[in-house]
Amino acid sequence: MFTRRNLLKSGAALAASSFALPALGGNAKIRIGYVSPQSGPLSAFSEADNFMVAQFLEVAKAQGLDVEVIVKDSQSNPNRAAEVARELITRDQVNLILVASTPETTNPVCTIAEAEEIPVISSVAPWQPWFIGQQGNPSDPGSWQPFDYVYHFFWGLEDNIGAFLRMWDSVQTNRKVGALWPNDGDGNAWASEVGMPPAAAAAGFELTDAGRYQNLTDDFSAQINAFKRAECEIMTGIPIPPDFTTFWTQAMQQGFNPKVVSIAKALLFPESVVALGDLGHNLSCELYWSPAFPYKSSLTGDSSADLAGKFQEAAKRQWTQPVGFTHALFEVAADALKRAEDPTDGDALAEAIAATRLDTVVGNIGWGKENVPEFARRNVAKTPLVGGQWRRKEDGSFDLVIVENGNAPEIPLGGTLELLA
Amino acid sequence: MIWLDTLVQGVLLGGLYALFAAGLSLVFGIMRLVNLAHGDLIVLAAYVILGICSATGMNPFIAATLALPVMFVFGWLLQTHLFNRVLGEDILPPLLVTFGLSVVTQNLLLEFFSADSRKLAMGAVEAQSVTLGPFTLGLIPLATLGSAFAVIFALNQLFYRTALGRAFRATSDDRVTVQLMGIYPQKVFAIATGIALMVATLAALYLGARANFDPTIGPARLLYAFEAVIIGGLGSLWGTLAGGLVIGVAQAFGAAINPEWQILAGHLAFVAVLLVRPRGLFPRAND
Questions:
Q1: Cβ-defined contact of A216 to B220 (cutoff 8 Å)
Q2: Which of A46, A281, A344, B134 has its CA 20 to 30 A from that of A402?
Q3: Mutate to test the interface with B, among A253, A279, A320, A395 (most CBs of B within 10 A)
Q4: Can you tell me whether residue B154 is helix, strand or coil?
Q5: Quick one: pLDDT at residue A117?
Q6: Partners of residue A243 in chain B, C-beta under 8 Å
Q7: How many CA atoms lie within 13 A of A214 on its CB side?
Q8: Intra-chain end-to-end CA distance of chain B, in Å
C-alpha cells in the first residue's frame, strides 16, 4: 500500500545506502594539494610549478597512481597561504599537501595542517626558520615540540655559513669580512649567536658588522665607509635583491673593492645577476641544486641536467635552483603514496613519509638522520648545499659554477673560486 | 671627515627623493589631489623605459626622452577620463580612486612583466665616480641631484613665467572664478598630470639606475615623497626640493650613527619639522 509512512521508510533506506557507498568504495582518487607563491614578489620561486605538476600527473598515471593535484596560489602572502591551506583541507578534502618556498609560505600551511592532522611535505626554506618559527615560544629551546604530520627537507643556516667560510678559506685574503645583514628574519638569524659571528671567529675571520638596516634602504654609504675603514677584503650578507644592487653600485662608485663577495638570497636567481650586468661577474652565493648535481629523479629517471633541459624547453627560461626541489617534492610524495598502507588515512601516510629513504634529484632524502640536531630530527631532512660563483659569458648571460663542495664531495666542482678585480 | 662625506652622500640621496616628490607636489599644488598611485606610476614609467630599451637596444637616457611624451599622453588621458570624474568638493572619492589605481597598476605590471626584479643597464657609467677633494661622488647620483635641481627650476619657470603657469596658479587659487576668465580647470588639470608623469619618468630613470625595481616596489617610495612634500610646505616646489634633501641628509646621518636608525631618522626629521613649522618650511602664503 502506498502510504506516507512507507514512502518515508523506503526513502530513508535509499538515502542511507547512497550515503554509505563512497565509504565502501575504498579506491577513491588520492587528492594532493600544492601551495606555492605563484604571484607576487616571491613568484620567481614557482616558475617550475606548471611544468612539474603536468609531468607528475603523466608519470603517476603511467605508474598506476590515481591522483589529482589541486594547485593553490599563496600570492606571496602568509595570510593567504593559511587561507588556501584551510580551503584544501575542508573544501577539497585533500589527503596530502605539498608546500614550497620561503617560511612565509611553508609555515602557515604546516601549522594549519598539523592542527587538522593532514600530512604535509614541505621544502625550500632553511630548516631553522621552518622548525623554530612554528614553535609556540621560539626563544625557549626547552619548549620546542616535534610535529606529527609535517615533514620538511632542505638545508640549514649552518650549511650555508660553512660553505661560505670554506670558499673564503680557499683564497688568499686578509681574512677581514664586512657583513650586510638586514633587520628581518634572515638578517637577525645570521647575525645571532647561532649564526655567522661565532663560526667566523672560530675559522679565524674578523667580522665587521655595520648593524641591522631596514629593507629597501636607498643609501649604503655608512656601511661602505665602515667596511672601507676596517679594510675588509671579503663581503657577505643576506640582503633582498634591490638592496644588494643599490649597495654594490654604490660600493663601486665610492671605491670599495672587496676580493670576494658571497651573498645569500639576493643572488639566487639569474635575473637578479643579469640585472647587475658587468658588476655581477664572479659574485658567489649558496647553491642547492644545479644541472651539475650528480643525482637522478626517482620518478622519471632523468638526471639533473635532463630535468633542467626539459624545464628550459618548456618554460623558455634559464633553470633556477628551486626547479630541482619542486620536482623532488613530487618524488617524495609519489614514493610515500606508493608505500603507505592506506594513502587516504592521514596517520598511515604520515608514517610512510617519516620512513622515507629516497634518492631524489636533489640528493638522498630521509627523516631521522644524524646530521640534524636531536630536537628537529624527526621532522627535518637535510639536502646538500655547496658554493657557487656567477660567471659572465660573452653574450651577457651568466653561468653558476660550483666552486666549493665540502658538504657533499660527490658533487663535482666546476672550477675554483676566482677573486674579483 | 666622515661626517662631511655623510652630509654629501645624504644630499645626493635627497636629490632622488626630491625627484620622487616633485610630481606629487605639482599635482597636489594645483588640484589638491593626493595621488596615492604616484609610486606605482614611477615604477610604470621605469617599465616603459625598460621596454623601449629592450625593444631598440638604446641607452636608457635616450629611451627616457622617448618615454617622456608617452607618459605625458598617459597622464593626460588618466586625468581626463578618470581623475576629472571624481574631483569635487569631497576629497574622499579621488583618494579612493588613486588607491585603486595603485592596486590595479601593480597587478597589471605583475601580469605583463612578472615579479622578476629588473634594472636599467647604464653600462660603465654606473660604477664611475669623480673625486672632488676628499669626496668620491658617483656620476649617477650627481646626475640625479642635478636633474632634481633642473626639474624644480624648470617647473618654477613654467609656473611664474608662462601663461600656462598663470592658469595653473589661478586654477589652484579659485577653481570657480577662473572659469569666468575662459580657463577650463579640467584641461589645466590634464596638462598638470601629464607634466607630473613626465617628472615621474625622470625619477624612474634614476630609480632604475640606482636599484632594482619590480612591480610591487612603488608604495615604499611614495612615503618619502609625501614627507618631502609636507616638509617643504604644500604648493612650494623649491620647498619640495628642500624637503627631499632634509630626508636624505637625516637618513644618511642616522645610518652613520647606526644603520638601524637610517629610515627612522628620516621620519624623525619629518616629525621635527612638523612640530616646529606645522605648515612646512616654505608654505605658499595664501593657502
A1: yes
A2: A46
A3: A253
A4: helix
A5: 95
A6: 211
A7: 15
A8: 42
Q: Is the pTM of this model over 0.95?
A: no
- Mean pLDDT score, A242-253: 92
ipTM, interface predicted TM-score of the complex: 0.89
- Asked: is B2-113+140-276 a CATH 1.10.3470 domain? The reply is yes
pLDDT at residue number A249: 92
Provide, rounded to the nearest whole percent, the portion of chain A with pLDDT above 90.
Answer: 73
Burial of A208 (0-12, 13-18, 19+ CB in 10 A): middle
Domains of chain A: 28-155+291-382 (3.40.50.2300), 158-287+385-404 (3.40.50.2300)
Distance of alpha carbon B30 from alpha carbon B149, whole angstroms: 20
Q: Do A41 and B214 touch (CB under 8 A)?
A: yes
From the list A41, A76, A253, which residue is nearest B129 (CB)? A253
pLDDT at B250: 96
- Judged by DSSP in three states, A384 sits in coil
Of the candidates A377, A90, A419, the one whose C-alpha atom is nearest the C-alpha of residue A281 is A419
**What pLDDT score was predicted for residue A6?**
63
List per-block mean pLDDT (blocks of 10 residues) for chain B, which spans 287 residues.
88 95 92 92 96 93 96 97 91 93 93 83 86 87 96 95 94 91 93 96 94 88 91 90 96 92 94 93 70
Bridge partners (DSSP) of residue A392 are A398
Is residue B187 within 8 A of residue B79, CB to CB? The reply is no
The residues spanned by each domain of chain B are 2-113+140-276
Q: Check CB contact of A271 with chain B, cutoff 8 Å.
A: yes
Whether the CA torsion A298, A300, A301, A305 is positive or negative: it is negative
How many other CB atoms are there within 10 angstroms of residue B122's CB atom? 21
- Spell out which residues of chain A touch residue B16, defining contact as CB-CB under 8 Å: 218
What residues of chain A lie within 8 A of the CB of B6, using their CB? 221-222, 225
Q: What is the dihedral of CA B47, B50, B52, B58, to 10 degrees?
A: 160
A309, pLDDT greater than 70: yes
Rounded Cα distance between A356 and A366, Å, is: 5
| Residues paired with residue A207 on neighbouring β-strands, in sequence order | A177
Tell me which amino acid residue A38 is. Q
Q: Is the CB of residue A48 less than 8 Å from the CB of residue A326?
A: yes
- Res A27: pLDDT: 56
Mark which residues 56-85 of B lie under 8 Å from A by CB: none
Positive or negative torsion for Cα A359, A361, A365, A370: positive
Report the distance separating Cα A370 and Cα A357, nearest Å: 14
Query: Which of A76, A210, A254 lies nearest to residue B259, judging by beta carbons?
Result: A210
A172-192 tens-digit pLDDT: 999 999 999 998 888 888 998
Instruction: Name every chain A residue with its beta carbon within 8 A of the beta carbon of B141.
Output: 253
Does the distance separating the beta carbons of B139 and A253 come in below 8 Å?
yes
